[in-house]
Amino acid sequence: RQRWRSKKKTLQKLPVHMGLVVTEEEPSYADMASLVVWCMAVGISYVSVYDHNGIFKRNNSRLMDEILKQQQELLGLDCSKFTMEFANQDKADEVLNCQSALKVLSPEDGKADIVKAAQNFCQLVAQQQRTHTDLDVNVLDNLLSSTNGFPDPDLVLKFGPVDSTLGFLPWHIRLTEIISLPSHLNISYEDFFSALHHYAACEQRWGK
């Protein structure tokens, strides 16, 4: 714990929202839980976990149990200072009431969510509650349910050999820094912190 505090001070900036994207076929609950708890420990406010098969989302209670276990093991007496909740996608206010918020996502929260948002907007136009000229970035953001209450990711750690994020929030990562790591299996805290250090040192031009 002392190591986390001292190392955190060496970072010039932290991501507010980090995405953890697993492209490997066999996701590890224990290793993903470690990554989530490390995010909590260094002060990252929002964390999204994603695998392209939706395994973590279908078994989110198992993932939460592992997170709570490792929270106690890794943070010890400090764990009372850190709260992690699965964000209820139907109640955005719950996202904002905890120190660190977690969303577990699957491909249905990517392109399918954009299609659903577009359909909802068309219905509003048909009902004359909106006009087609109302559609802009902010309106679409508000119609998307997958990240309701979450800012766009600042950093994505992509794990595995596939050179793709495999559908992870395609609308939200246009300005996201993406760092690829060989695997999330047996990942060390040093690997995690090295990625944070790389992010802190990068110059983001915001498309300019």
Structure description:
Pathway: Protein modification; protein glycosylation; Lipid metabolism. The active dehydrodolichyl diphosphate synthase complex is a heterotetramer composed of a dimer of heterodimer of DHDDS and NUS1. Interacts with NPC2. Belongs to the UPP synthase family. With 208 residues, the chain is of the alpha/beta class. Helix content is 39%, strand content 15%. It contains eight helices and six strands. A six-stranded parallel β-sheet has the order 3-4-2-1-5-6. Helix 2 (29-42) crosses helix 4. The protein is globular and about 55 Å long.
Which key terms come to mind for this protein?
alpha/beta, 208 residues
What is shown here, in short?
The chain has 208 residues and is an alpha/beta fold. The chain is built from eight helices and six strands, in the order αβαβααβαβααββα.
Multimeric state of these chains?
A: single chain
Helix count equals: 8
Chain-averaged pLDDT: 78
Low-confidence stretches: 85-98
Question: What is the overall silhouette?
Answer: globular
Span from first to last CA?
39 Å
Name of the CATH class of the largest domain: Alpha Beta
* The CATH homologous superfamily of the largest domain: Decaprenyl diphosphate synthase-like
Structural class, please?
alpha/beta
- The CATH topology label of the largest domain is Undecaprenyl pyrophosphate synthetase
Set out the fold topology:
Layout: H1 2-8, E1 17-22, H2 29-42, E2 46-51, H3 55-58, H4 60-75, E3 84-86, H5 92-95, E4 100-105, H6 111-126, H7 137-143, E5 155-159, E6 177-181, H8 189-201
Parallel strand pairs: 1-2, 1-5, 2-4, 3-4, 5-6
Helix pairs in contact: 2-4
